[in-house]
Amino acid sequence: MTDPAYLTAVRESYDTVAAAYADTVKPPAELDPLSRATLAAFADAVRSAGLGPVADLGCGPGKVTAHLADLGLSAFGVDVSPRMIELARQAYPGLRFSVGSMTALEVQDGALGGILAHYSTHHTPPELLPRVFAEFHRTLAPGGRLMLAGHVGDTRCLRPAHAYGGHPVSYTSHLLPPGRIAGLLDRAGFTLSAQLVESRAKGAQRTVATFLARRPERS
C-alpha cells in the first residue's frame, strides 16, 4: 500500500534531519520542571495500572523512550523515520525500536498499558486524527493511559522549508485549538483526566498543551 503524501514527507524530512535533531533536542532530564513532572505523572499512572508495556509513538532518536525506561516502565519506541530508529538503536541498544506509523500500529488489540505521543501528532492532517486516536484506543488495554503533548494554536499550518540546522524539510505542522484535540479524544472513546495549556514563554512562538487520558475499563 502506498503511503499518503504527508507521511512520505514526514519520513523523508526526518531522515534528512535525524542527526541534527538528535544533537539539538534536549533529553527529558534537561527539560523544564513542568515537562518532567507530566512525564513522571504519566509513568506513575501507567505503573499503578500495571496493564502492559508503553509505546512511545514518534520516538525519534529514543531519548524519551529511554527516560520512560529509567522511570521503571517497559517501554519501546516506534517512528516513521528509519534513520531515527537507527540512531535510537545505536544510542539505546537495550531497548526495542521499530519503524512504523501510528496510523496502523503492529500491536494487538488491548496490548498496551500506555501510549506516549510526545510532540508527534502535529504532522497528521486534522481530518486523519480520528483514525490515529482510534488506533490509540484499539491498542490500549481497558484502563490504559495516554499522554499526548505538543504545540497547539488557532487552526493554522506551518510549512517550514528548513529545520534543525538548515536542513531541507517538506512536512507540515498543524496547530489546533486544545478544545478541538480534547473533543477528538472524547469522540475516540477516551476519558480525559487532565488538560494543561501552558502560558506561552517569553520569546516562544507556539503554545504547548498536554493531555492525560485513559481508555475506560470494561463495564
Describe the structure in your own words:
It is a single chain. The chain is of the alpha/beta class. It has a single domain, classed as Rossmann fold, CATH 3.40.50.150. The chain contains 6 helices and 11 strands. The strands form 3 sheets. It has a 7-stranded mixed sheet, with helices on both faces. Strands 6-9 form a two-stranded antiparallel sheet. β4, α5 (129-139) and β5 form a beta-alpha-beta unit. α1 (5-24) packs parallel to α4 (82-91).
Quick structural summary:
The protein has 219 residues and is of the alpha/beta class.
Indicate the topology:
Layout: H1 5-24, H2 33-49, E1 54-57, H3 63-70, E2 75-79, H4 82-91, E3 96-99, E4 112-118, H5 129-139, E5 140-152, E6 156-158, E7 162-163, E8 167-168, E9 173-175, H6 178-187, E10 191-197, E11 207-214
Parallel strand pairs: 1-2, 1-4, 2-3, 4-5
Antiparallel strand pairs: 5-11, 6-9, 7-8, 10-11
Helix pairs in contact: 1-4
